[in-house]
Design a protein that fits this description.
It is a single chain. The protein is an all-alpha fold. Helices cover 73% and strands 2% of the residues. The chain contains 19 helices and four strands. It has a two-stranded antiparallel ribbon with strand order 1-2. Strand 3 (186-187) and strand 4 form a beta hairpin. Helix 9 runs antiparallel to helix 18 (433-451), helix 14 (323-341) crosses helix 15 and helix 14 packs across helix 17 (391-427). It is globular, with a radius of gyration of 23 Å. The two termini are 36 Å apart. The relative contact order is 0.12.
């Protein structure tokens, strides 16, 4: 039976940008993200109406792209986690729940929906056009959210509290809001923009991940939208909007990462035009030095970066000056300690929180107030420690060196393939939507690889969306080339 609810299949694209919108389950001490509910409904409809077509398409993409290596990795993670549960390293109940919640319902449902829908019911081009348009709208309403907080406009704040209510539900359920205890929602007297996310840093991460795609669309010479006004408006304003939103999150580390990413992506152009910028740059630097020498930076956004560079002599100083970053470093170091004790197999999927409680008691670095707060929460409610997630450190700790190596092989294959496609388009002087998208997605993958070292997590939807979009592009590219060879 052919699926007739095409418009409904666009809802996950919209709900993708509502990650903190949740509903409480009556009678149970749990809540579900609306994003997850909508994905489940869409996947159920696909299975109900066109299971064979959808599954065949998914297997075809997997077999012809690096996604095969990803699925091998996920399978070995399941086997490794069950193996560790048999030897008492991880509780069997935790192993089963982690496999179900993270592998099947966390990652599997995202892979099933996007691989099954894109180019089956929504064309690749149409999907990306709708995604970019939705992203643009989110950036606009981000400014509305920030001004609502700045001027305390109740109706605006209430609307955003309703659509980003995960923490409010958590507070009403436990009476203890861990995130409110550990997050700073104001910086230098100004509100930090979290838009529809649970905290400003997570919103900043979204922008940094998709910044290369934003650049590629903005700089594209091809027409993205048939409406001329919409096309020009998005191309001319999406980059400034993204940077304004990023700056208003007041997240120094993501600002630095965005600048570094921009330099990496455009280093050749920067070097090429550097000779024309020498004198203007010197002039700007001289003016900037004069201005800075007469301005008190203690209450500005840049002060956090300057403090890190100038005021730190010991790690205790680092905790006082930049507690958020210090918390992550302490967490990452202790994750590495757990990995050192379980090099081959790790401690099992979802099990790092249990090991982290004991590890922090013998931490080689001093604990920050945020970590102590989280420890108190774990002790009070007898739950695993909610660790700050740095992808590569947590992945090594939970899965060991062998599985991590296979995962990195997958990422390398993905990068190698998309880089080859980009070179093909450039070498043959193509000017097309696919070329712009391939360049943008390659940049997104570079962004994710950079974030492996800082803040990323195993089931993060943004990461898998990039993996999927690149894989489908690889599949389409191979299919088109094969058709051309057959014609010859």
């Amino acid at each position: 039976m052919k699926l007739n609810l095409k418009n409904f299949l666009y809802l996950p694209i919209i709900s993708f940008f509502f990650p903190a919108f949740a509903v409480a389950i009556p009678g149970l001490s749990v809540s579900l993200k609306v994003q997850f509910i909508i994905l489940c409904i869409c996947c159920f409809l696909l299975l109900l109406t066109s299971a064979r077509i959808t599954i065949n398409k998914i297997f075809s993409i997997i077999n012809n792209t690096p996604l095969k290596t990803l699925f091998i990795t996920l399978f070995i993670i399941i086997i490794n986690t069950l193996f560790l549960s048999l030897f008492g390293v991880e509780r069997f109940s935790l192993a089963i729940s982690s496999i179900i919640m993270q592998i099947f319902l966390g990652i599997g449902i995202i892979l099933f929906y996007y691989l099954g829908v894109i180019d089956n019911y929504i064309s690749y081009r149409r999907y990306l056009k709708f995604f970019i348009l939705t992203f643009y709208v989110i950036l606009v309403i981000g400014l509305i959210a920030w001004f609502g907080m700045l001027f305390n406009v109740e109706i605006i704040n209430n609307i955003f509290d309703f659509f980003a209510n995960a923490r409010i539900i958590n507070l009403s359920r436990t009476g203890y809001d861990l995130f409110r205890q550990t997050s700073n929602y104001y910086a230098f007297g100004l509100p930090r923009l979290d838009n529809l996310y649970e905290e400003p840093g997570w919103y900043a991460r979204l922008i940094v991940i998709f910044l290369p795609l934003i650049y590629s669309i903005s700089f594209s010479k091809t027409k993205i939208y048939s409406n001329k006004v919409l096309n020009v408006m998005i191309k001319k304003t999406i980059v400034p909007l993204a940077w304004i939103n990023l700056i208003l999150t007041f997240s120094p580390i993501f600002l630095i990462l965005a600048i570094a990413l921009t330099i990496i992506l455009y280093i050749n152009k920067i070097v090429r035009y550097l000779k024309y910028l020498v004198f203007p740059t010197l002039g700007v630097l001289i003016i900037l030095c004069i201005v800075i020498s007469n301005v008190d930076l203690s209450d500005t956004y840049l002060s956090r970066i300057i403090n890190v560079l100038t005021k730190i002599k010991t790690f205790e100083d680092f905790i006082l000056v930049e507690g958020s970053l210090a918390t992550r470093i302490v967490s990452y170091v202790n994750s590495c300690c757990i990995f050192k004790d379980h090099i081959l197999t790790g401690v099992g999927l979802g099990n790092i929180g249990n090991f982290m409680i004991n590890q922090l008691e013998s931490s080689p670095l001093p604990l920050t107030p945020e970590i102590q707060t989280k420890l108190n929460f774990s002790y009070a409610y007898n739950v695993p420690y909610s660790t700050n997630i740095g992808f590569i450190y947590n992945f090594l700790a939970e899965h060991g060196i062998i599985i991590t190596t296979i995962w990195m092989v997958f990422v390398y294959k993905l990068y190698f393939s998309i880089n080859m496609i980009c070179k093909y388009f450039i070498r043959n002087h193509f000017s097309s939507f696919e070329k712009d998208i391939s360049i943008g997605l390659k940049g997104c993958l570079i962004s994710i690889i950079i974030l492996f070292l800082y803040e990323n997590y195993f089931t993060m939807p943004e990461m898998y969306l990039v993996f999927i979009l690149i894989s489908i592009l690889i599949y389409k590219f191979k299919k088109n080339n094969k058709q051309k060879e057959n014609k010859i």
